[in-house]
Amino acid sequence: MGAKRNPSLVAGLAIVGILTGVFILGFLFTPYDANLMDLSSRFLSPSAAHPFGTDNFGRDVLSRVMIGTRTAFLVGLLTVLIGGSAGLAIGATAGYSGGLVDEAAMRLMDAMMAFPGILLALVVVTVLGPGTGKLILALGLMFVPSFARIARGGFLQYRDREFVLSARSWGAGPVRIMALHILPNAASPMIVAASVGFANAVIAEASLSYLGIGVQPPDPSWGRMLSESQAFLFKAPWCTLAPAVAIALAVLGFNLLGDGIRAARKGGGQ
Amino acid sequence: METPAKENLLEVKGLSLAFGPKDKPLFAVENLDLSLGAGEILGVVGESGCGKTLSALAVIGLLPPGCRIEAGSIRFLGQELSGLRGDGMRGLRGREIAMIFQEPATALNPVQTIGAQIVEPLLLHTAMTMKEARAEALSIMTKVGFAGVERLYGVYPHQLSGGMRQRAMIAMAIACKPRLIIADEPTTALDATIQAQILELLVRINRDYGMAILLISHDLGVVGGLCGRVAVMYAGSVVEEASTTELFRDPVHPYTKGLIASRPTKESKGRPLYSIPGAVPRLGHKPSGCPFMPRCGSAVPSCALERPDSLEVGPGHEARCPPEAEKRRRVDE
Predict the structure, then answer these.
(1) DSSP state for residue B212 in the 8-state scheme
(2) Which of A47, A152, A202, B259 has the most Cβ atoms closer than 10 angstroms to its Cβ?
């Protein structure tokens, strides 16, 4: 599969690959301590010593953006994991059982979807208090309905296939059939959804952190870096630009990856 | 409860399967009787839509949603299956009763390897470890005619030909050595040359393992070559049942006669084939008398009155056509 046939996949993989590289590098090496304040070097514009400049406390922006990938990846991954597994369980059960179970589960999902997502997360954080863990829980909850819908669609599509009947004919139980026979067939839309969900989680984390209810200081998060730097946007635009570009890249990368996977699964037959 | 002298492996009595509302049921299968001894091959023949597949699914407890057992009993090894739910039925499926489907291309899981699919019933129903199950699967694959089993163990269904897929399907079905195999049109989706090989394989399985086979087909030729006994189904009931030789030598029911007459033979070469006029009555439009009457060339007025009973016309030979049975009796006397 060349870049010509699936440019989204190649571009998405490249961007996500670079971000992952930065994420891993962040554990081993950052140019400076991301939380180290140096009041003598505030608002330094980008230079060889500080490629992305420094912020209002004299912290190195590049180091903070690098450590910020940690937050973004952690939140993105866990959110997708929580939302995806809960959504999969609900959607799979609903789609495979059909009837009343399906109706009840999907109406519940509709009700959850009717809340604006950010508002739902806000309520959860307000009730439970701020913190990265609670933020992840809130976002995960917010993502359940969309995953549930996608999973339901896949399971509904496959439950009446003959190979499912065949599996039942040799004694496979419902859980076994759902996990071993339908899931591998219905997985590709879930993988696409997970990739796009990851991008959405990055945005949502940035938004909530921007609102000040996400990741708490001093740990760097791209969203909070944006909100902290907006007061001196004209004085030190690099402080805003760096996290903004990082968010845009992450969102673009995971969306492209999702598109690419979708295209690959479609083109690959089966 | 009276127990017959020799309990058959499968004993279906008065089975009626219906769709639709409880107070106005539409019968897809009506008053079906079938019995199958251990190690026997019984052929069930009939046109599309006569209830063959539905009856088979009822035996294995996999009726489609909306279809229910309205009356009758299905006894397997003396155990009543019609009321069995969940785990009880699941324990029998695959272990004692297995099914071979018509279209192996859709009945095999496209994203699992052939080997994995043969191993699964073994792991589920026996205490085998993965290693033992794998060895067993390889030996079964050899048995059903795979050459180079080590390599084919890891291939996916789409990499195999239709005949090979059906062999894989059969391997899955016989994996746990069930006593009864239901083969629903096992050769319909295959080329004529492959068809013969698959039928031969079924006979070999029946002979070597003593597994009883309920062979469902619309093709009298397939059934005739394979089965000791044949039941001919029409519009949801068995209209005639006899040993294969008897059935071909002396068919009683006009429908059976029509089926036999419409087969291509050496004598009929070059002449157009006979076809039974009309079509199977649709569900809900069955006549109240004999369902075959509208298409029957030898119907008499009494045929329209009520559902005909199955009458014995010879040893082990029953037909659901009272006028014809009456004729025979007169000839005999």
Answers:
(1) E
(2) A202
Identify the three-state secondary structure at position B140.
helix
- Nearest chain B residue to A184, by CA: B111
Query: Rounded to an integer, what distance in angstroms lies between the CA atom of residue B205 and that of residue B261?
Result: 31
**Under a CB-based contact definition with an 8 Å cutoff, are residues B313 and B233 in contact?**
no
Mutate to test the interface with A, among B109, B125, B188 (most CBs of A within 10 A): B109
Shortest Cα distance from A171 to chain B (angstroms)? 5
ipTM over 0.85: no
Across the interface, of B106, B112, B121, the residue whose CB is closest to A161 is B106
Q: Please give the share of chain B, as a percent, with pLDDT higher than 70.
A: 97
Q: Which two tokens stand for residue B320?
A: 């659901």
Q: What is the distance, to the nearest Å, from the Cα of residue A219 to the centroid of all Cα atoms in its chain?
A: 19
Among A49, A23, A48, A27, which residue's Cα sits nearest to residue A38?
A: A49
d(C-alpha A51, C-alpha A48), whole Å: 5
Q: Please determine, for residue B6, whether its predicted confidence score (pLDDT) is greater than 70.
A: no
Q: Are B167 and B149 in contact, with CB atoms under 8 Å apart?
A: no
**Long-range contacts formed by B203-206: CB under 8 A, 24+ apart:** B203/B41, B205/B143, B205/B144, B205/B170, B205/B174, B205/B181, B206/B39, B206/B41
Domain A7-15+49-267 has CATH 3.40.630.30: no
Instruction: Determine contact: A174 vs chain B, CB below 8 A.
Output: no
Cβ–Cβ contact B186 with A under 8 A? no
The answer to whether B242 and B316 are in contact (CB under 8 A) is: yes
Q: Is B165 exposed, middle or buried (0-12, 13-18, 19+ CB in 10 A)?
A: buried
Collapsed DSSP state (helix, strand, coil) of residue B307: coil
Q: Is B179 on the interface with A (CB under 8 A)?
A: no
Residue A192: which of A151, A134, A141 has the closest Cα?
A151
The answer to whether B120 faces chain A, any CB pair under 8 Å, is yes
Q: Does the CB of A185 have a partner CB in chain B at under 8 Å?
A: yes
Q: In the numeric block, which tokens belong to residue B319?
A: 């037909």
User: How far is residue B157's CA from residue A192's CA, in Å, rounded to a whole number?
Assistant: 25
| Cβ-defined contact of B169 to A166 (cutoff 8 Å) | yes
pLDDT in tens, B59-74: 998 888 888 898 899 9
What is the predicted pLDDT for the residue at B239? 92
Please list the pLDDT of chain A residue by residue as tens digits (270 residues).
Answer: 455 678 889 999 999 999 998 888 888 887 777 777 777 777 777 777 777 777 777 788 888 888 888 888 888 899 999 999 999 999 999 999 888 999 999 999 999 888 887 787 788 888 887 778 888 888 888 889 999 999 999 999 998 888 999 998 888 888 999 988 999 888 888 988 999 898 888 888 888 888 877 777 777 788 888 888 888 888 888 888 888 899 999 999 999 999 998 888 776 443
Please give the span between the terminal C-alpha atoms of chain B, in angstroms, as a whole number: 38
